[in-house]
Amino acid sequence: MTSNLIQASSRKDAHIDLSLDPETNSKGENSFDRMRFMHCALPELDVKTIDITTSFCGRALSAPMMIGAMTGGTARAEAINRALATVAQERKIAFAVGSQRAALESGQSAAYLRDLAPDIPIVGNLGGIQLARPSGLDLAKAAIDDLQADAIAIHLNPLQEAVQPEGENDWRGVRDAIATLVKANIAPVIVKEVGAGISVPVAKELFDCGVMAVDVAGFGGTNWARIESARRDHDVNLFVPFLDWGIPTLECLLNMRDSFSNRHIIASGGVRHGLDAMRAYWLGAEMISLAGPLLTQLLRHNKTPSPDSLSNLVVQLQRQMSLTLFLTGASDLAAFRSKEALIDNKLILDLSRLS
Ligand SMILES: Cc1cc2nc3c(=O)[nH]c(=O)nc-3n(C[C@H](O)[C@H](O)[C@H](O)COP(=O)(O)O)c2cc1C
Known about the structure:
single chain; TIM Barrel; three-stranded antiparallel β-sheet; globular; binds flavin mononucleotide
């Protein structure tokens, strides 16, 4: 392995440990707390028959839920990904892997993940900066082929790279590289942030490039400025004003819903439980992705992956999602979107009325 690849691998392991530390989570109010649903005291439904099933990338799912992109490329990451894929297959939810770059560049395959999870959507992952390199398109093809991925996610993380000690800060050419990847028509392309959010003008540029979906990955959960800052031994003060920089996830979703009513939006960033997931769904997200909270649950016991522990959390999240529908009097996801909600204590009857 070259020293760059060794560095990338040890960085990934450090990211896992630091993401488990509550100190690296975003501080302050979680934006989802601004939203409530109108309670229905007469649901006329049996909670056991609430239907939250859906589909994504043409595959049936038990709920609009995805394990968010996290890791890959090291022995520890492989054990984590095996557990995540096993739980995703067992619970019929989508599974996104973390950046495949380090693994692919060192000749490692993660094809075993497709064997573990043959029926669910698997989403590959590469960084926007890597995609913009001369070999970027070939790397993306290899990433999709290796997993037989249903889609590939390209992550945009300029804040994280800016604070990361080894970060790369030349973002020129990334939009064109995304457009080239879309045109190559290898797999549907998703573009995501990693916790600082995607604004409407950026989403418009991405949809104009032809991307299938935008995952807002907003501010409020795992905080990459804090994680990278904790890895720094110099210039720490330089980044202090930026530690809680980003667009809160609820804000992203409200803006997206106003601007792109017919586009595919994925929600992530600070989703804590099934009620938050349904808040995001009501606001127009078709899939809800969680990363940090699932990893924390998976590694709860001495940092050894426990698929059972994660599987139990997924069941709990899904029960919370069903309960949200039940308590608004909605029997399924379509009916749920027409229910009333309050944002900042203002009643919202219909999303199109949001100013
Ligand atoms: C340990 C860890 C590693 C991550 N690695 C990646 C990555 O390689 N690629 C990516 O697109 N996002 C990565 N993310 C970001 C997540 O996919 C997600 O966008 C972000 O953590 C916000 O979601 P959360 O608040 O539910 O954690 C990572 C997150 C965690 C916790």
